[in-house]
Amino acid sequence: MSDENAPNRLLTLAAPAASALLLTLAMPGLTGWWPLLFVALIPLLWAARRLPPAKSGGMGMFSGLLYHLGLFYWISGVMERYGGLHSAAALAVLVLLAAYMAAYTAVFCAIFNRLTGRPDSGRALSVTVLLTAPAAWVGLDVARGWLFTGLPWMDLGYGLSSQPLLIQAADLGGHHLITFFIVQINALLLWIMEQLFRRPTVKTAKREYLLAVMVCLCLYSAGGYSTFRYRQVAFEAAEAEQAAAAAAQGNIEQSVKWSPAQKTTTVERYIALTEQLLSQGMKPDLVVWPETALPFYPHRDPLMGRVRDFVDKNKIQLITGAPFFTVEMDAPDSGEKKNLKPVEYFNSAILLDRSGKMVDRYSKQHLVPFGEYVPLREYLWFVRPLVELLGDFTSGSSSKPLAAERIRAGTLICFESIFPEIARKTTAEGANLLINLTNDAWYGHTSAPHHSWAMTVMRAVENRRSLLRAANTGISGIIEPTGAVKSQSGLFHEAVLADNSIALLTGQTFFVRIGHWFGACCLALTGLLLLGRWQLDIGRRKQARSGGGGQL
Q1: Is residue 539 part of a domain?
Q2: CA-to-CA distance for 312 and 308, rounded, in angstroms?
Q3: Would you call 338 a catalytic residue per the annotation?
Q4: Angstrom distance (rounded) from CA 256 to CA 322
Q5: Is 529 domain-assigned?
Q6: Once rounded to an integer, what is the mean pLDDT over residues 484-499?
Q7: Are 171 and 462 in contact (CB under 8 A)?
């Protein structure tokens, strides 16, 4: 490229690599240097604008691949250890997953290039980039969270989960709004840099400076809103009805969790942890054990009697994870024998009342592909062994909270906590407390448990609910409606976390009512902007062909 603004090949590689490195360092789990989020995208945006559209997309693919290899490095270990794959095959799975995620970065860079125009076209970077860049990024996040069952893992907004004062606007537009602000700040800094170093022949209209000031005022207002809402919600939580609740972390080794010889040991460990809490004089309204803390079917195993007796003796309410199955019966014809339909298996959370009776059940709605079921299994027969250990589960269909007397527990099992819509629905149906039952033992001592924890924190802020998390090997914890962490366990040790003043808020946030559409609006806006750009280009070409002297 001969244009003086066109980057050489070294910069074309260095810029996207720099963004990938900065994003990796910014996310929790490795270093968690969150301030880097506000500058990490600048090299990528700068380079994306200076390449032809196809090459810009390729550069985005390169950057996204590097970043997601760093984000998902733990996948290969999980697939090798628990999926039974050869190390080479496990590495291939990691690369394929990273490539899929990187495709969205590639599309973003191509869109960004198309909407902003290259410097060699004589066009200055328009201040509209402060809208187009964040809208396109968030819109693609939404698409990624929906396509192929969805994988909204660690969107940029989650990188600020450890900073409650910066994420309070999530109760307006969810974590997507936080991502929008992050990308907008990156775009703003890029726009300012381009104004400072632009060529003298390239002019910027005064109205563009006015719009930039307006964006700065909006960002300042968002910061003010966040500070105000943090204090307001903290006050509301202190004045709200309070409950006592506890979460137990049993630290059961994943490799022996499902062995028949381990069942009794597992149950006794959770009972001992809960008794330890009760011996300290605390009388919780609710005790929560993790996902599949009962490694058996509760309505078929005699060991369930031990759990019921313990609950009845101590007069507590217990929500625990357990596999569950049902057998549906056809309506019998006159004089004919009933016919059995296939058995359906569920990853469930069951509620035991103070007498030990099972009174309610929630079944996981969003199952893990290739972990809890095989999509298109008739065509993908060769990956069925991956789910043989856990079974082929059926997804639940209800978001109704579990009614534990005055506590209405909106339940999220495992990675359901990364899908904001599931928590939103159960809140809309009356949940006054969110609980997350999970088993992150698969991840080992990697960054993945920290990612999972960060995404869970955001659910508390979006819905303005206290959140109680019970994880088999951690991270377990108690999160306030502000997103502030009351207590948090470490990884791979036994723990029991309890609190006598867990706020039971009941109001619905703007996010729960309307704001959850924010991300979809960004996706629609991106489509409209691309359509407008396409029509504008058609008009210019027609004008050029007619001899009007139009500039292509």
Answers
A1: no
A2: 6
A3: no
A4: 16
A5: no
A6: 96
A7: yes
Q: What contacts 434, CB < 8 A, 6 or more positions away?
A: 409, 410, 411, 412, 423, 426, 427, 459, 460, 463, 465, 466, 467, 468
Distance, in Å, from the CA atom of 23 to the CA atom of 38, rounded to the nearest integer, reads 10
- Total number of domains in the chain: 2
Same domain, 232 and 244: no
Q: Which of 257, 364, 372, 522 is catalytic?
A: 364
Q: Which helix (H) or strand (E) holds 90?
A: helix 87-116
Average pLDDT, the chain: 89
Active site (annotated) includes residue 425: no
**Residue 216 bears catalytic tag:** no
pLDDT tens track for 36-68:
999 999 999 999 988 888 889 999 999 999 999
Spot the catalytic one: 109, 208, 257, 291.
291
Backbone angles phi, psi at 334, to 5 degrees: -60, 120
Say if 82 falls within a structural domain. yes
Lookup: tokens for 116: 């902003």
Taking only the tens place, the pLDDT of each residue in 136-156 is 999 999 999 999 889 999 999
In a domain, 544, yes or no: no
Contact by Cβ (8 Å): 506, 481: no
Question: Measuring CA to CA, which residue among 531, 532, 551 is closest to residue 541?
Answer: 551
Q: Are residues 211 and 245 in the same domain?
A: no
Which residue in 80, 257, 372, 414 is the catalytic one? 414
Q: Are strands 358-363 and 477-479 parallel, antiparallel or unpaired?
A: unpaired
Shared domain for 208 and 142, answered yes or no, is: yes
- Cα distance between residue 243 and residue 502, in whole Å: 5
Q: Give me the CATH number covering residue 323.
A: 3.60.110.10
Q: Which residues pair with 335 in a beta bridge?
A: none
Q: Look at residues 489, 377, 391, 459 and name the one whose alpha carbon lies nearest to residue 170.
A: 459
Do residues 115 and 533 touch, judged by C-beta distance below 8 A?
Answer: yes
